[in-house]
Amino acid sequence: MRAPAEWPHGSRIARQGVPGDRWQPGLGFAAARVRELDALAGDPDEVRARLSRSIPLRRYGEPAEFGQAAAFVLSPAASYITGAMIPVDGGAIRSI
Known about the structure:
Number of domains: 1
CATH architecture: 3-Layer(aba) Sandwich
CATH topology: Rossmann fold
Shape: elongated
Number of helices: 4
Radius of gyration: 16 Å
Number of strands: 2
Distance between the termini: 29 Å
């Protein structure tokens, strides 16, 4: 697989009818694997509470929230969005 910097630019692949959007999941998702990793660092509930304080929304995201964002971008309602990097991270990336 090619590195992200080598991926085709959105405008180039859009001409072929491919939106070329990418998602950026945050680190704090309430998935089973994240809970396992939290447990490696100590009490998983304490680790989750501590890490949640560093997320602007102050909570881990639910896997369904990531799926809902992806479903929207893949839907006809978002047909004019192309070549976008979509952060789904509770506000962790501080940019406009």
